[in-house]
Write a structure and sequence with these properties.
Blueprint lengths: L1 E11 L4 E4 L1 H11 L3 E7 L5 E6 L3 H14 L7 H6 L4 H10 L2 E7 L2 E2 L6 E6 L5 E12 L1
């Protein structure tokens, strides 16, 4: 079995910044020449998430509104008492969404629906550079 790992970096603004990363992922898969297998994405950190959505302004707004409704920024979290960094909400959002995502590769292409794109979401309360690791496992 062939295994390939590469990462790319993105500049994220925080506060539920949603960044489309499908193109980066496709490019890495093509580079490997894997025909069939698994593509796994992971971003080290406890304040981010990776998922798939229809990347359009309505869904982006709805997703941001959803996170604010169920895990709001403006309330006290026990995390604040320990670290005083004001980002307790971002840790809870990340735990709910997860900082990783995987999908199959079939015939050299990632398997996504017509309106489905891969997105990275930065939940933290400050901008930062994020690494996203892409690991491809499969057969050439």
């Amino acid at each position: 079995m062939f295994v390939y790992t590469e990462y790319f970096e993105i500049e994220a603004k925080g506060f539920c910044d949603i960044i489309e990363i499908t193109g980066h992922t496709r490019e890495i898969l093509r580079k490997t020449q894997v025909r069939n297998g698994l593509v796994f994405l992971h971003s080290p950190g406890s304040t981010c998430g990776i998922t798939s959505i229809e990347y359009e302004s309505g869904v982006i707004k709805d997703l941001k509104d959803f996170f604010e409704k169920i895990i709001p920024q403006g309330i006290d979290y026990a995390h604040h008492e320990r670290w005083h960094d004001g980002n307790g909400f971002s840790h809870i959002r990340s735990a709910l969404l997860k900082p990783n995502f995987s999908f199959p590769a079939v015939d050299g292409e990632i398997v996504l629906g017509v309106w489905q794109q891969i997105v990275f979401i930065d939940f933290n309360n400050s901008p930062r550079t994020r690494k996203i690791y892409v690991q491809v496992l499969g057969e050439k």
